[in-house]
Amino acid sequence: MQLTADQSLMLNYPSIVVLTGAGISAESGIRTFRGSGGLWENHSIEDVATLEGYYRNPALVQAFYNDRRQRLSEVVCNAAHKALSDFEKSFDGEFLLVTQNVDDLHSRAGSQNLIHMHGELYKVSCQDTEQVFEWYDDLTTETLCPCCQMAGNLRPHIVWFGEMPLEMDRIYKALSQCDLFVSIGTSGNVYPAAGFFEEAKAAGAETVELNLEPGTNASRFDRSLSGPATELVPEFFNALLG
Ligand code: OAD
User: Fold this and answer.
1) What atom in ligand 1 is closest to the CA of residue 35?
2) Which of 10, 53, 148, 199 could disulfide-link 47, Cβ–Cβ 3.0 to 4.6 Å?
């Protein structure tokens, strides 16, 4: 019996989990975190990415995220974001996209089954009730919270260091059942995301890294391919579809 490309793909990889990091948005013009010109170069992580830093100087932290939120209107999704969304539409198996990015470029490209494990720039939350709101404007220490009407109670809906990333149960469940795990544009420095490939491996999945340069754990992936995401990602996922 002759299998169609779709059927043979389904036999090999009925369940796929993809993890993305800052590298997938780099060619859209969003700075990555580490390396020269990286976002963390001009800022101390303790000041702008921890709850303690926020309590010390909420105005500074809000200005940092206001600036990043504003910049989103100046960028567009690229061929790598689009390739993932196109793949998801054509693929009949289970597909979960987990991103560490707080930009909205995967959503704009049309990805559906998507988890923003480190939060989203276009959302804020109330520090008392933990209610989450879509938010496109600047936040200040004077901004009134829509639920409790308290000034300064809203914070960026961003997972800071020391806080628990979002939807971890759903992510670990998908990792424990996946047959292919693909890591794209992430340096592999920040846990728990940096350990996802191990979870997938333990479940018997094939593990692939697509990155500009090999990441911290490159040698422990089954395959590690180097190059810009806008080239590697469309090539890899088109080849999967045959
Ligand atoms: P990093 O800045 O640590 O790593 C970005 C990776 O993308 C590097 O390995 C680059 O080689 C690669 N890269 C750069 N340009 C690329 C391109 N055009 N195509 C493909 N790859 C490219 O960013 P992340 O690994 O995403 O967390 O960082 C993880 C987390 O650390 C972030 O989500 C953030 C940060 O602290 C929080 O803020 C909680």
Assistant:
1) 2
2) 53
Ligand 1 binding residues, C-beta < 6 A = 21-23, 26-27, 32-34, 38, 49, 100, 118, 159, 185-187, 189-190, 211-213, 215, 228-229
Q: What residue's CA is closest to ligand 1, atom 9?
A: 187
Dist. CA 164 → ligand 1 center (Å)? 19
Which element (helix H / strand E) includes 90?
Answer: helix 79-90
pTM of the model: 0.95
Q: Give the H or E element holding residue 159.
A: none
CB-based contact 231:30 (threshold 8 Å):
no
* Distance between CA atoms of residues 85 and 132, nearest Å: 26
Per-residue pLDDT tens over the stretch 50-60: 999 999 999 99
Our mutation pick for probing the ligand 1 site, out of 18, 65, 100, counting the most ligand atoms within 8 A of Cβ, is 100
Which of ligand 1's atoms lies nearest the C-alpha of 187?
A: 9
pLDDT in tens, 79-136: 999 999 999 999 999 999 999 999 999 999 999 999 999 999 999 999 999 999 999 9
Taking a C-beta distance cutoff of 8 angstroms, is the pair 60, 66 a contact? no
